[in-house]
């Protein structure tokens, strides 16, 4: 995703658009920005596999909330469909996946 630049006869507008694009495009291209929030994911004591809904290979994830003390880690390689997390306790988490 990049900021579109519209053709214009105005040199000032063209310069502004070029400057805006130079500042905003690196942020828009960041894979973390292109993620999504998964809410209320129930993890068991052991491995839990669920669809991450990105339709591409994941780059990473953040736990944004969890309702109990637990050690949680990724136990399978990233792929284009699922994420497998292993927990040492029953816990519900919210995740930002990207």
Write up this protein:
This protein is of the alpha+beta class and 98 residues long. The chain has a domain at 36-97. It has one helix at 11-28; strands at 36-43, 46-51, 61-66, 72-74, 82-87, 91-97. Strands 1-6-3 form a three-stranded antiparallel sheet, with no helix packed on it. The longest helix is centred in the N-terminal third of the chain and has 18 residues, at 11-28. The mean pLDDT is 95.
Features:
18% helix; three-stranded antiparallel sheet; 98 residues
Short description:
The chain has 98 residues and is an alpha+beta fold. Helices cover 18% and strands 37% of the residues. The longest helix has 18 residues, at 11-28.
Q: What is the spatial order of strands in the main beta sheet?
A: 1-6-3
Cα-atom radius of gyration = 19 Å
The outline comes out as elongated
Helix proportion of residues, in percent? 10-25%
The first-to-last residue Cα distance is: 15 Å
Q: Tally of extended strands?
A: 6
Structural class: alpha+beta
Uncertain runs are none
Alpha plus pi helix count: 1
